[in-house]
Hints:
Shape: elongated
Oligomer: single chain
Radius of gyration: 16 Å
CATH topology: Thiol Ester Dehydrase, Chain A
Mean pLDDT: 92
Order of helices and strands: EHEEEEEH
Amino acid sequence: MRFEIPDAKKRIFEMTIPIRWGDMDAMGHVNNTVYFRYMEIVRIEWLHRVGGAPNPGGQGPVIVNAFCNFYKQLEYPGDMLARHYVSNPGRSSFETWITLERVDQPGVIYAAGGATTVWTDFPTQKSTPLPDWLRLLLE
């Protein structure tokens, strides 16, 4: 099955993630919950690289919903190429999209998902406008 990223989304980051033996479940494939961990790794790594690591005493991202579509089973051993996209920056939120494919099978999407991310002031636990530096990266 092929997953297409619509033109309105902007690819902003990609990274390789190893599939670990411990990621698999009793059925011999990567457990469904681990795909959400892979997507989290990509989002957080991107934020660290652009200078936006979450700051518990300040501001940062909060995921308010997340989804994943599973197309093929990932299995150990192997490496995945994770591609991260963004879209729809609003006052305090934006959408993230991530595709996962095996490095040894380029172009074959094994899973695709995303999340709605809200920029939050952690001490007040309220949404806050996206910082200008982040808005520039998203648009």
